[in-house]
Design goal:
- Keywords: Signal, Transport.
- Helix content is 43%, strand content 22%.
- By secondary structure, the chain is of the alpha/beta class.
- It folds into two domains: 143 residues, Periplasmic binding protein-like II (D-Maltodextrin-Binding Protein, domain 2, 3-Layer(aba) Sandwich), CATH 3.40.190.10; 94 residues, 3-Layer(aba) Sandwich (D-Maltodextrin-Binding Protein, domain 2), CATH 3.40.190.10.
- The strands form three sheets. Strands 5-1-6-13-7 form a five-stranded mixed β-sheet. Strands 10-9-11-8-12 form a five-stranded mixed β-sheet, sandwiched between helices. A three-stranded antiparallel β-sheet has the order 2-3-4, covered by helices on one side.
- Helix 4 packs across helix 10 and helix 4 packs antiparallel against helix 11.
- It starts with a helix and ends in a 12-residue tail after the last helix.
């Protein structure tokens, strides 16, 4: 009987100690509230708290996004992105440029590797389902560039031929759906695609007309025989799907930059030297 009583006392004591331990481990409601208050409730708040905005840009798509000889980000998209960073954080140097490719722009947003994409991103119905586009700032269509001595001036000439495109681009989607009789050779990077054209691995290359027109000016042995293909589209920055606070702020800022002439200034600095008088900026810039 004495042994049973001792065992019972041990059990009561153990239970009491366990209960005390559990109570000690329980965080107070006040601490929970403090932690919740410290955690930003939106990406916009997080950006402001961290003091840096991560913007995805191209590294090899001049004159829109590229690295110069010093390894610095340059181009039309980059110029606008710097102004966005300045308006958001008070300093254009508080931007972290993240190099992206056409095929991974959506994934970088989904995986929170970037906050905003400024990488010559054409607005399409398919992309609108997976990202949220802000106000567009450029008009664009498709173009086809080919050697001057064997120019492609009509899509019909591409039947059963090899056409070079970048994976995940509007050109890739357009030709895959509309012209399955054309053989597509796809690459990740723009430099690879244009090198393939120079090497003769395809009879032509399809991409945004803004890009191929600029490239042909720097490569006089090539010509843009098809200057506008498909419907006119728009280029816009994008944020992660559902990131409403950042999207609303970005739209307001883009309207402000347009009214202040910043986008026109970016055109004068980066695009006009390439296109010259051949293209009217009103045909490219969204009012």
């Amino acid at each position: 009987m004495h042994s049973i009583q001792i065992d019972k006392l041990k059990y009561i004591l153990a239970t009491a100690l366990l209960s005390m331990g559990l109570v000690a481990c329980q965080p107070s409601g006040k601490d929970d509230k403090s932690a919740a208050a410290a955690e930003p409730s939106s990406s916009l708040e997080r950006i402001k708290k961290n003091g840096v905005v991560r913007i995805g840009v191209f590294s090899d798509k001049p004159p829109f996004g590229y690295l110069d000889e010093q390894g610095k980000n340059q181009g039309f998209d980059v110029e606008i992105a710097k102004h966005v960073a300045k308006d958001l954080l008070g300093d254009e140097n508080k931007v972290e440029f993240v190099l992206t490719e056409a095929a991974n722009r959506v994934e970088y947003l989904k995986a929170n590797k970037v906050d905003i994409i400024f990488a010559n991103f054409t607005v399409t119905p398919e992309r609108k389902e997976v990202v949220d586009f802000a106000q567009p700032y450029l008009k664009v269509a498709l173009g086809v560039v080919s050697p001057k001595n064997q120019p492609i001036t009509d899509v019909a000439q591409l039947k059963d031929k090899v056409l070079l495109v970048n994976k995940g681009t509007t050109a890739d989607s357009f030709f895959s759906k509309q012209h399955p009789d054309i053989k597509l050779l796809k690459f990740e990077q723009n430099t690879e695609t244009f090198d393939a054209l120079k090497d003769g691995r395809g009879v032509a290359l399809a991409h945004d007309n803004l890009l191929v027109l600029a490239w042909a000016k720097e490569n006089p042995n090539y010509t843009v025989g098809v200057t506008s293909l498909g419907a006119q589209d728009f280029i816009a920055p994008a944020v992660k799907k559902g990131d409403q606070a950042l999207l609303d702020w970005l739209n307001q800022d883009l309207q402000k930059l347009s009214k202040e002439g910043v986008i026109q200034q970016a055109y004068e600095k980066t695009l006009k030297p390439v296109y010259g008088a051949d293209i009217d900026p009103k045909d490219l810039l969204v009012e």
